[in-house]
Specification:
This protein has 372 residues and is of the alpha/beta class. 42% of the residues lie in helices and 13% in strands. The strands form two sheets. It has a seven-stranded mixed sheet, with helices on both faces. It has a three-stranded antiparallel sheet with strand order 8-9-10. α2 (33-53) runs parallel beside α9, α3 runs parallel beside α4 and α11 (292-301) crosses α14 (347-371).
Length: 372
């Protein structure tokens, strides 16, 4: 139940990738037959992703994943003298990128969020300046699942003539995405968050949006991302996009998430961001008088994988920056655990998790009482 860290590869995705791992190993930039077979596979996948996002195939740029897509959007857009707006609950791929911009003398505003982890569109509007060149706001939070008002912000950006980037890594495959409905110029997704392979992602780049490449070395991806294409990974992402389009939707996941939360209510837990609109698979639960890391370890020993924060921050001693930005105290943040489900999660999985969590929460609290 740590799907926001990564999801299992769907069997049909693995099958689509298999020939390009074992048999058809051509370089998609080569002009001979093997290369052209690879090129055709890449372009088919590009078309699938374009349908998934509601854009043109030429607007799909393949990358190595969400972090690179976020970095390309930010470093490829901002230049000296610009002003950039983001929020306090973004993924570190965005926050550390804008911090690097600030070190280079670019002005950055990091906006606060409310108790549910949601930024105010009016705060975004008020932060605009004549030199604002980029707004970067995530679609769904990776720790709480809270949905940000990206359509409202898209309208604000359009009115101001400002470029808008959306990190949709945790939204892709869970809720529908339409780049035209959002009104963004740039949007990031990652394959392994939506039952595709690790090591591949996409940056949507709206036609006419100028983007400075951050890699040098070739004219790949219409001169926007140099480097030999990861053909097998791209094929897998394309298939995962097709599966998401054809999938059963978010209703089943929401039912399972609500079943989990209801089953744990009696164990003195609160849902962080529970009043916000959320993606259907994510639940961030705060357990009173429980150390989150201790609970994660105890559950792992029983065969249940959950998280106390973003996977990229594992091992960090600091409490979640997302939860602190929402107004939780450091102790409350450290008492919180993230559960994130995926399309293969079953009712039996949820019921087993409830039983395991209930037992381990009781045990951890008893141990804490003894230590005190």
């Amino acid at each position: 139940m740590d799907a926001n860290a990564t999801t299992p590869l769907l069997p049909e995705v693995a099958e689509a990738m298999r020939p390009f791992l074992l048999e058809q190993f051509g370089n998609a930039s080569s002009i001979h037959q093997e290369g052209q077979l690879a090129r055709a596979a890449v372009e088919r996948a590009r078309g699938s992703v374009a349908r998934f996002l509601g854009c043109r195939p030429a607007e799909v740029v393949f990358t190595s994943g969400g972090t690179e897509s976020d970095n390309l959007a930010i470093f490829g857009s901002a230049k000296q003298g610009d002003h950039v707006i983001t929020t306090a609950v973004e993924h570190h791929a965005v926050l550390q990128a804008v911090a690097r911009l600030a070190e280079r003398g670019i002005s950055v505003d990091v906006l606060p969020v409310d108790r549910q982890g949601v930024v105010s569109g009016e705060d975004v509007r008020r932060a605009l300046r004549p030199d604002t060149s980029l707004i970067s706001v995530m679609m769904a939070n990776n720790e709480t699942g809270a949905l940000e008002p990206v359509q409202e912000i898209g309208c604000i950006a359009a009115e101001a003539g400002v470029r808008f980037h959306v990190d949709a890594v945790q939204a892709a495959g869970k809720i529908p995405i339409s780049v035209d409905s959002i009104g963004c110029h740039l949007l990031s997704i990652s394959g392994h968050k939506m039952h595709g392979p690790q090591g591949v992602g996409v940056l949507f780049v709206r036609r006419g949006t100028r983007l400075e490449p951050i890699f040098a070395g070739g004219a790949h991806e219409r001169q926007r991302r140099a480097g030999t294409e990861n053909v097998a990974g791209i094929v897998g992402l394309g298939k995962a996009a097709e599966c998401a389009i054809e999938g059963e939707g978010s209703v089943r996941l929401a039912i399972l998430r609500d079943r989990l939360e209801k089953g744990l209510q009696e164990y003195s837990c609160a849902v962080n961001g529970g009043q916000a609109l959320r993606v259907p698979n994510t639940s961030n639960l705060q357990f009173d008088a429980v150390d989150g890391e201790a609970l994660v370890i105890a559950l792992d020993l029983k065969g249940l994988a959950v998280s106390s924060g973003a996977a990229c921050s594992s091992g960090a001693s600091e409490p979640s920056h997302v939860l602190e930005a929402m107004g939780l105290t450091p102790n409350q943040a450290r008492s919180s655990v993230r559960f994130s489900l995926h399309r293969q999660t079953t009712e039996e999985d949820v019921d087993r998790a409830i039983a395991l969590v209930a037992a381990q929460v009781t045990r951890v609290r008893e141990l804490s009482a003894v230590v005190r």
